[in-house]
Amino acid sequence: CHSDIHQVRDEWGGSVFPMVPGHEIVGVVSRVGSAISKWKIGDVVGVGCFVDSCRHCEACKEGEEQFCAQGMSATYNGYERKPDGSLDTMRPTYGGYSSRITVDENYVLRIPTGMPL
């Protein structure tokens, strides 16, 4: 997506470096947390522009995570979340061109079996 180029060049301002761009990702689940039952290792999945949000503010409750009051966690050029839900500005998110990415289970979509990657 051309937005990756804009972000790398910081043409829109606010780029977080170091940066690994890439959103709208397809990949294979390599690990899951102990409380996760929706996904298993080997599942083929897709991820959009976000990997997390607070899910407690009015915008998140209305399905408008891009307007999260605490800031949504973008697939890249954003920040991971602390256990209290606030953004951890010391831990940037790295996108789909990285070797691995951590995504909250609610921001993962199943890719149909047999669909070519």
UniProtKB/TrEMBL annotation:
Tagged with keyword Oxidoreductase: yes
MF annotations from Gene Ontology: oxidoreductase activity, acting on the CH-OH group of donors, NAD or NADP as acceptor; zinc ion binding
Domain named Alcohol dehydrogenase-like N-terminal: residues: 1-112
PROSITE patterns attached to this UniProt entry: ADH_ZINC (PS00059)
Keyword annotations of the record: Metal-binding, Oxidoreductase, Zinc
Pfam families: ADH_N
InterPro entries for the chain: ADH-like_N, ADH_Zn_CS, CAD-like, GroES-like_sf
Protein name per the record: Alcohol dehydrogenase GroES domain protein
Annotated organism of origin: mine drainage metagenome
